């Protein structure tokens, strides 16, 4: 199964969600800035990456995990991706998850300053603070997705 | 093969392009049965419009403002799902008239937005369908 986490730029909430899914960061404690910056693509993308589906890794069940930046399209992008997968007969092989609704204002402001304006300072500290504040809601989202992927792949059947 | 005409809205230029491609002329007519589907349900999901004489299935899809971003995502998605190139083609359909209609749609109804939009649609129709005919000629599955 392919699991795509998507958010505005594909560099913050979706990347943290993918890293949690892949168990690259511990879900039981808040990650440090160094741990977050060590995750591929975290606060490292640019405008040319919008729309690109980027591979992050394979989880313990063999699911391929991807991230994607889709600007402000919200859950509409899930409908587009799932709709296309459906017409090619692969809807059962795909889960697309919108992470944008888990993003707080600090993440939006920090991400905007850091990525759009190129102001690493003060953008990144604000972003990291916001990411830590949103961490538990992202953990909750990822746990839901993991359960969904288990039941879709028949692990719990 | 499946052909997706990707427009900002699935029921405007993309639908005219799909109908032109299928030889139905420059019309915004939907296939029977779809007229009862709620408008919101048709946005951002592929809508099957018909098949051409070679059996290619034709769809329209609304992609919002950035069609090239959506096209890139669909192509990447097909790649990761293991769909061979040539099984699905995405044809972005965008004309400068879409932008005019988009601006007009933001005028509030009390200021005559709805009537202005309808009037503009009728006037722009004459120009738009010629542009779309040129776009559709480039779609060769």
Q: What does this 3D model show about the protein?
A:
The complex is a heterodimer of chains A (157) and B (141). Chain A is built from 5 helices and 4 strands; from the N terminus they run βααββαβαα. The longest helix of chain A has 34 residues, at 120-153. The model of chain A has no long low-confidence stretch (mean pLDDT 93). Chain A has 157 residues and is α/β, with parallel strands linked by helices. In chain A, 43% of the residues are buried. Chain A has a 4-stranded mixed beta sheet with strand order 2-3-1-4, sandwiched between helices. In chain A, strand 2 and strand 3 (64-69) form a beta hairpin. Chain B has 5 helices and 4 strands, in the order βααββαβαα. Chain B has one domain (2-94, 128-137). Chain B has 141 residues and is an alpha/beta fold. Chain B has helices at 13-21, 39-42, 67-80, 96-104, 113-137, and strands spanning 2-7, 47-51, 57-62, 88-92. Classes of the chains: A alpha/beta (157), B alpha/beta (141). The A-B interface holds A 2, 4, 50-53, 55, 64, 66, 68, 70-71, 73, 76-77, 79-81, 83-88, 90, 93-94 and B 2, 4, 43-46, 48, 57, 59, 61, 63-66, 68-74, 76-78, 80-83, 87-88.
């Amino acid at each position: 199964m392919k699991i795509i986490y998507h958010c505005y730029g594909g560099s913050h909430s979706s990347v943290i969600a993918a890293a949690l899914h892949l168990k690259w960061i511990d879900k039981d404690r808040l990650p440090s800035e160094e741990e977050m910056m060590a995750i591929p693509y975290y606060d490292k993308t640019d405008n040319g990456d919008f729309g690109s589906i980027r591979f992050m890794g394979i989880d313990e069940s063999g699911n391929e995990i991807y991230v994607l930046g889709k600007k402000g399209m919200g859950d509409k992008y899930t409908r587009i991706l799932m709709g296309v997968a459906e017409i090619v007969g692969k809807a059962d092989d795909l889960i697309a998850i919108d992470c944008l609704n888990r993003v707080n204002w600090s993440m939006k402001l920090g991400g905007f300053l850091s990525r759009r304006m190129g102001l690493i300072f003060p953008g990144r500290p604000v972003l990291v603070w916001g990411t830590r504040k949103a961490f538990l809601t992202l953990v909750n989202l990822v746990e839901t997705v993991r359960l969904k992927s288990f039941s879709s792949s028949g692990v719990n059947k | 093969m499946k052909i997706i005409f990707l427009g900002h809205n699935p029921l405007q230029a993309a639908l005219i392009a799909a109908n032109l491609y299928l030889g139905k002329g420059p019309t915004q007519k939907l296939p029977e049965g779809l007229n009862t589907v709620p408008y919101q349900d048709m946005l951002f999901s592929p809508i099957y419009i018909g098949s051409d004489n070679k059996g290619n299935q034709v769809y329209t899809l609304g992609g919002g403002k950035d069609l090239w971003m959506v096209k890139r995502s669909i192509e990447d998605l097909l790649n990761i799902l293991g769909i061979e190139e040539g099984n699905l083609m995405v044809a972005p359909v965008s004309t400068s008239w879409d932008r005019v209609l988009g601006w007009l749609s933001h005028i509030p109804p009390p200021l005559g937005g709805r009537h202005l939009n309808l009037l503009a649609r009728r006037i722009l129709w004459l120009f738009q369908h010629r542009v779309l005919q040129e776009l559709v000629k480039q779609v060769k599955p």
